[in-house]
Give the backbone structure.
Amino acid sequence: MPFQPMLGGMVATQSDVEPTPFRDLDVTRSDSSLRRFLHGLPGVDQVGAEQRAAALGTRSIKTSAKAFALDLAISMVDLTTLEGQDTPGKVRTLAAKAMRPDPSDATCPATAAVCVYPDMVATAKEALGSSGVKVAAVATAFPSGRAAMDIKLADTRDAVEAGADEIDMVIDRGAFLAGRYLEIYEEIAQVREACRRENGESAHLKVILETGELQTYDNVRRASWLGMLAGGHFIKTSTGKVQPAATLPVTLIMLEAVRDFREATGTMIGVKPAGGIRTAKDAIKFLVTVNEVAGPDWLDPDWFRFGASTLLNDLLMQRMKMKTGRYSGPDYVTVD
Amino acid sequence: MTRADVRKTYKLYIGGAFPRSESGHSYVVEDAKGKFLANAALASRKDARDAVVAARGAFGGWSGRTAYNRGQVVYRIAELMEDRRPQFLEALSSSEGLTSRQATAALDAAVDRLVWYAGWADKLTQVVGNANPVAGPFFNLSTPEPTGVVAVLAPQQSSLLGLVSVVAPVIVTGNTCVVVSSFARPLPAVTFSEVLATSDVPGGVVNILTGDATTVGPWLASHMDVNAIDLVGLAGSPELAAELEVAAADNLKRVHRAPAAEPDWALEPELDAMTRYLETKTVWHPIGV
């Protein structure tokens, strides 16, 4: 029986596809009501969550199901480079790889997006052209989120103007841990506003919770709901700069949150684990968890993504193994 | 009250650790008279895959060591084998049915073989490398370089001397290897892996799989991340050996072909044993700069 939150207000009618900040609800009216709501969410059974995640990780996915899972995982990858040493050349190389991950095989799907810093958006956009691969930009003083609000908004607008299709924002974990929930709610809502373009469209917003810094699973659940109430299209686990990053239990809790949120409001939110997922085996464990916890609706690049860089090479090597029947090696994929 | 036996569990040696087979399978090892001797881990294709990953991971560090250091490390294996003489003699006489004198001779030869190859580590470049005369103001130097990860299907009959004779020439020049031991006589290989684990050989440089070369071999032969394969363990099975040669051609592996019968390992080895797993790198360097 999914959990039914007491949100107050006419939420069940809001079944439009676009998530927007839920402003008319009782819970988002004041800091105290928001706190009451978030702390009223049922606590996470830590041992239970870890056990369930471990059990889902033991499923054996073979032959045609594995081939399907590998292709699906490739099409869900946000191919990421977020380093101080990124150059336009590196971004163009990454874009080429995102469009044709396996140049020797035309049946290999493209990845969902490339994920870069805002100053590289124009380069990525130009390289990707009309391929359909999206450009995601990290914004709002990534990865720490420690900057004044106007700087965060300017950061976001810059990236959107440069053509970013998706914005990955970080929340202010200090404010979250200090309990200033409404501040984060407002922050996300404002960034959501800054994602709008002049033509009325809007860049998709992914809200990075940085679960490695949230200390408890209860906090992960609270931050997930906060991100969804404030109008994020996606909730994302981590920046990839903090250990631990995307673990299976954390992703499971976030998947429960998006499932319950759709149940309560009719709005579907995506999930993106990022950081630390390096092998095809791990990726398949995540896909099994998506299917079992949130449901098959989320098994789609529009609703589930992997933030990763090295993962893609392992997916490709596994894919070659499935196709040719012999083990491949790192000599046959790019060096990133 | 009699003391309970502490029975030994024979396991694989991958990446410096002793894991059980991923498949969970083991097989019965019999002594030379057909009596039960032990249960050994039966390596599967996934163990071979893991071993190749371990060998590839160890290659950079091992090939980057100085030749002198590699020689010392290989010599150290010989030292530790001396320390385990009783265990090796026991394994040899039960596995191969050798008399005490024959077993001692085989063990001595195996230890001496390691010392012989250890000496070659920092001398091979002088013998097979060259300063080539060229028509221009350049030094032109050819030096041997290790080829990479070598899969070794170890001899089926000579379970220790044969094993040492195929592993030592591979690693002394800086390659790393995945070895499939003799199927019927795996115990000396297991003891050898325990020697390696306590020696200075970095984990992953030698990985030893006990099991059937005819089932694991094809996966290693077709593996795109293996640079060379020694088929000596398939001596006398020309059809299977030919199949593996075909599979190995996909990524242009260096192949040491299976002989018609297992060679006499007591003979002094040829340089070929080392040079067949080497690539020649030639460098042009301007004179006077």
The domain at 31-324 of chain A is CATH 3.20.20.70 (TIM Barrel).
